[in-house]
Specification:
Keywords: DNA-binding, Plasmid, Transcription, Transcription regulation. One of its GO terms (molecular function) is DNA binding. This protein is mainly alpha-helical. The protein has one domain: Arc Repressor Mutant, subunit A. The protein is 62% helix and 10% strand. It has 6 helices and 3 strands, in the order ααβααββαα. A 3-stranded antiparallel beta sheet has the order 1-3-2. The longest helix is centred in the C-terminal third of the chain and has 19 residues.
Length: 117
């Protein structure tokens, strides 16, 4: 996509991290290099297929670095690239907002579920 295809910077950023799992993957990789199993446990509800797909997309986009150690049992490490770290840093204020407003968001989600029943 060309730069002029985005309506604003937020539009461009969301094109990269769109979806439910990519921001969480980046959050966990921002703190340290992680193995696949560590990421799966940290995120929890994500399926194997979806986690692999999201990691591959982040790798292709140049945000995540993958190292296959060619060992048995398999050992693959994931970490953020420098480019990925810049995006992870941009997610920090969003994480802080979520932490500060977790109670309100939880109530909002409960109310939303009640309205859609």
């Amino acid at each position: 996509m060309k730069r002029d295809m985005f309506t604003c910077g937020l539009d461009a950023a969301l094109a990269v991290i769109g979806g439910k799992w990519k921001p969480l993957i980046m959050f966990h990789l921002a703190h340290d290099t992680r193995r696949y199993g560590e990421l799966k446990r940290a995120i929890g509800a994500v399926s194997h297929k979806m986690l692999i797909q999201q990691l591959k997309e982040l790798e292709v986009d140049g945000l995540v670095h993958r190292v296959d150690h060619k060992e048995i049992p398999p050992r693959v490490d994931y970490s953020l690239t420098e480019f990925g770290q810049t995006l992870a840093n941009a997610l920090v204020p969003l994480c802080e907002w979520g932490t500060a407003h977790a109670t309100e968001v939880s109530e909002m989600m409960t109310n939303r579920e009640a309205r859609t029943r």
